[in-house]
Amino acid sequence: MSIIAWIVLGLIAGAIAKLLMPGRDPGGIFITIVIGIVGAIIGGFIGSALGFGDVTGVNFPSLLIAVLGSIILLIIYRMVRRPTV
Questions:
Q1: How do residues 27-56 score in pLDDT, each as one tens digit?
Q2: What is the C-alpha to C-alpha distance for residues 46 and 35, in angstroms, rounded to an integer?
Q3: Which UniProt keywords apply (predicted)?
Q4: Per-residue confidence at 25, pLDDT binned at 50, 70, 90?
Q5: Is 27 helix (H, G, I), strand (E, B) or coil?
Q6: Global pTM?
Q7: CA distance 83 to 31
Q8: I want to staple 35 with a disulfide (CB 3.0 to 4.6 A). Which of 11, 14, 52, 57 is the partner?
Q9: What would the DSSP string read from start to end of 4-47?
C-alpha cells in the first residue's frame, strides 16, 4: 500500500474508532491519523495471525480490520493513561 493510502485509511479508521469510543483521548486530525495507521498495523498483525486477512488497501475488509485495531489501540491508551485518584 502507498503512503497516501495508509494516511487515508488511517484517517477514516481513526475517525470511526473515535466515534465508536467517545471520550477524552488525544485530539486533533494528526493524532487521529496516527491512531488509525497504528491501529491498521495492529489490526493487520492480529488479523494475519488469526487467519482473517490483513490490510491490503482502501477497501471494506481492510477498513474493518483497521478500525478494530484502532479500537484496541484506544483501549490500551485509556488503560495506560487512566487518571490516578
A1: 666 777 777 788 888 887 887 888 877 677
A2: 16
A3: Cell membrane, Membrane, Transmembrane, Transmembrane helix
A4: low
A5: coil
A6: 0.76
A7: 20
A8: 14
A9: HHHHHHHHHHHHHHHHHS-SS---SHHHHHHHHHHHHHHHHHHH
